[in-house]
Write a structure and sequence with these properties.
With 418 residues, the chain is of the alpha/beta class. It folds into three domains: 114 residues, 3-Layer(aba) Sandwich (Rossmann fold); 226 residues, pyruvate-formate lyase- activating enzyme; 59 residues, OB fold (Dihydrolipoamide Acetyltransferase, E2P) (Beta Barrel). 34% of the residues lie in helices and 24% in strands. It is built from 13 helices and 20 strands. It has a five-stranded parallel sheet, with helices on both faces. Strand 10 and strand 11 form a beta hairpin. Helix 8 packs parallel to helix 9 and helix 12 packs parallel to helix 13. The chain binds iron/sulfur cluster.
Amino acid sequence: MQVRLLNSFLLNYFIISYGCQMNEYDSARLAAFLEFQGAIPAINAEKADMILVNTCSVRAKAEESAIARIRDLKPLKERNKSLKIGVLGCMAKNRGESLFKDLPFLDFVLGPKDYGELPAAKLANNYSAFIAIQSGCNMKCSYCIVPYVRGMEQYREVDSVLKEIEEAVANGVSEVTLLGQTVNGYRYKGLSFASLLRRVADVKGIERIRFMSPHPKHYSGELLEILLCEPKIAPHVHLPAQSGSNSILKKMKRQYTRENYLSIVEALRSSNSLYGITTDIICGYPGETEEEFEETLSLLREAKFDSAFTFAYSPREGTPSALEKEFLSEKQKKARLQKIIDLQHSITLERAKLMIGQSEKILLEKLSRKNSDEWVGKTGNFKRVVVKAQPNFREGMYVDCVIEGVKGHTLRGVASQF
Ligand code: SF4
């Protein structure tokens, strides 16, 4: 394992992470590995002996920001000749050796597969852990670089997943988020994702289970049933829609229709109208007509997402869609994006208001940065709630509260039992 070569001079490390939760998870595993080797986290890049930049290639913009950040590190290297700077992650795999040409002061470049054997257990914090159960993706959506940089889907052994969760629980964790590029496509020796969820729910000490990111194609009846019946599975899914138009979904090779997608939303909300559903939307895909764009707006209205990550399409070199001719100008794409943002903003607010009067169990995450008399927690349906601090409040504690109002998109609650 190549990182081990660095051990002899390593004292303080600093990791800069870009992109998805899978990347965050990899960064956490790297940190665990380095600390196992005796390294200490540096408080900032200036104080580090080694800086690792864990990159993302999904959007051209993510690569550009990572490259700009790496360039900013050059003066540190000039001041401290023994400082080592390495680039990891999808961009490292995607650009490989050519990165040395653009950034000659780099010491090493490692793709995601080069550190696949790192020890797995690392907590996102003291009470919540990310657990990777699947890597890679078999879908080949036309605009996405992930399958080319992360390879085909691979699934972790069930026993190793459960062991990691049990170890995390022994360290105080009560919430786990199972991670994978198409996490609900997980299968291992005949065991489905739904069965894995059942096994995770059986782990003593686990209170809340989340997963990220599911693909609409992999919502079986078995999965929907356990999502709605198992109380430990948090009532929230992040369900990337990308577009509301069937013709665009077809061009994107998403492998579902608007109707399939909405049937999942309906199944989840029919038994719990407050079920949290968040999504990703891309507008301005090559050739997207005004009518097709309107269908995305109507999907937002129909699905009533609790929130959405929204993007104007930008071509990603190395993907099939980058070869398609674009008809919309950047200005037109931005105007469409703004319409989506404005509409979603009002829907998010509408959904938040529905929570008023509800009794919710929130998991306390941290003291509010704005007011040290307040704590911030999360509901099962993934909404942020601010409550007045109590002397016994601590990170990772579950507190019952009643939602009394909404400020911005944040809920205000009154703790009733703690
Ligand atoms: S499902 Fe599509 S968008 Fe998601 S990682 Fe796979 S190819 Fe990319």
